[in-house]
Amino acid sequence: METIDxxxxxxxxxxxxxxxxxxxxxxxxxxxxxxxxxxxTPSFTVDAExxxxxxxxxGVGGDVFSLVMEKENLGFPEALRHxxxxxxxxxxxxxxxxxxxxxxxxxxxxxxxxxAFFRRSLVxxxxxxxxxxxxxxxGLSEAVIEEFKLGYAPNAWNALGEYFKAKGVSEGLLEKAxxxxxxxxxxxxxxxxxxxxxxxxxxxxGKPVGFGGRTLFDQEPKYLNSPDTPVYTKGRILYGLNxxxxxIRAAGEFILVEGYTDxxxxxxxxxxxVAASLGTxxxxxxxxxxxxxxxxxxxxxxxxxxxxxxxxxxxxxCFEKGMEAGVLILPGGLDPDGFLRKHGRDAYxxxxxxxxxxxxxxxxxxxxxxxxxxxxxxxxxxxSILAVLEAIPDAVVRSEYLRRTAEELKVEESVLRGLSRPSxxxxxxxxxAGFLPAEKRLLQILFEDxxxxxxxxxxxxxxxxxxxxxxxxxxxxxxxxxxxKDIPYPEMQKAIGPPLSRELSEALIEKAGPAxxxxxxxxxxxxxxxxxEAELRRLQGEIAREExxxxxxxxxxxxxxxxxxxxxxxxLSGRKAxxxxxx
Length: 583
Ligand SMILES: [Zn+2]
What we know:
Blueprint: H1 2-10, H2 13-17, E1 23-26, E2 29-32, E3 44-47, E4 52-55, E5 61-63, H3 64-72, H4 76-86, H5 98-124, H6 126-137, H7 142-147, E6 151-153, H8 159-166, H9 171-176, E7 180-182, E8 189-191, E9 196-202, E10 208-215, E11 223-225, H10 241-251, E12 253-257, H11 260-268, E13 274-276, H12 284-291, E14 296-299, H13 305-321, E15 324-327, H14 336-352, E16 356-357, H15 358-367, H16 375-389, H17 395-408, H18 413-418, H19 437-448, H20 453-458, H21 462-465, H22 471-482, H23 489-496, H24 498-509, H25 517-549, H26 552-580
Parallel strand pairs: 12-13, 12-14, 14-15
Antiparallel strand pairs: 1-2, 2-3, 3-4, 4-5, 6-9, 7-8, 9-10, 10-11, 15-16
Bound molecules: zinc ion (ZN).
């Protein structure tokens, strides 16, 4: 929590928002063209004092964390890290128990030792010499082998196991690190990587978090990767990004390949803006990570049918994350490594510029082999393309892609749009009426001065929450208050959903005076009055019903409840008038 506050304190929303749009100062606020929707007059407002933003055009809004999450396509932890890096705030690992943190640290250390072991096996053993020769035969230079710390796992059952045993490391821990596997007999373990060239997988900060191994002995599978461990999760990392992120930033785009050898050949040939997805399914995580460095990717998977399909599957992920994409399919079914060795770097550079735009590739593959002259088939294809395009977060880009698709597939644009989800036409229908004035003011006070939280919640009976539009917000505030943990704004937004979070951000950015405990009490009072009044209306209905039924006894008791309720409302109104009556 402390870190979130530190980052919040250090980050300047005007500065961050200024990266996405040009802001002009207007009083204490800044306005500019909204970076989330296309507009000609500025309705995007940033409040420097409250550190909030809100667009009166499209309704987006939130704090500096949600801004970064939205614009950079990051989750909350990543947005926090992103801002922490920018403002040089050291980040402790959150949410992990001390035991889990310790395990993480231990596994990390084991990986570093294992890396040293694999390096040594490659460089200074007779068996490693064969591996070294293999790498050189594949055309990899000494410098690249060194830079990416390639290694070798001896072709034995227990080489690494023995190495760690001598260091007193338990096999259980080695198993957690994914370095050994349990054998048939209990207590028996054997090395995961045997007779393989080792490609260490590095985190963005350059720590070895896992390993990939290519067999030299025709074992299955040809390529084997570390399993998920406390420090490595498949699909979270782009291989090589630690070494190439600056080149990617400079180029404004990167080449995405499938595996280690494609990556290394391209890197060695001077195409340094490259990363590998390791395995063919590109994940939103990987795209999100790359988006921090460049807005555009050229997917260059294998030219075989499997590679083409994988490239096709990568398109929706790119669209969804707002990453501009192109696809390069190399002639002759070649992969990048094979192509470079056969045709050289100039030929490759020439083809790079001819990458097919993502939309075109999506359409081409979708219609391939389909009878587009059959209306039913055509509709099906159109729907499948639409499903992908609808995930594009930017409305302008989405609309443009729809237009181009209509043109390309020769269908009326309006017809194409008509195929799109029906709910999209009336999104506002689901939004109920707005906050009550007191309800809104109370939220403003609470966010303006969180110190008043305890006092406000103590005087806010949960029964009064019922039916308020802000009820879900209050439930979250109460829950986090009880658990003594602060809830970051983006998490709140996620929990309450878009329509309510829009309303909240709009309420919070409104001009309002300084918060005070007295005013909070007035609001609570006003809320209780409206709550009691609603109760009175319900009671009135009940009395009328019982009178019709001739239930005298029930009417009597309801009448006395009504009496008590009226007295309560009068008392509350008096208190409110008193409290609010000071000059
Ligand atoms: Zn907007």
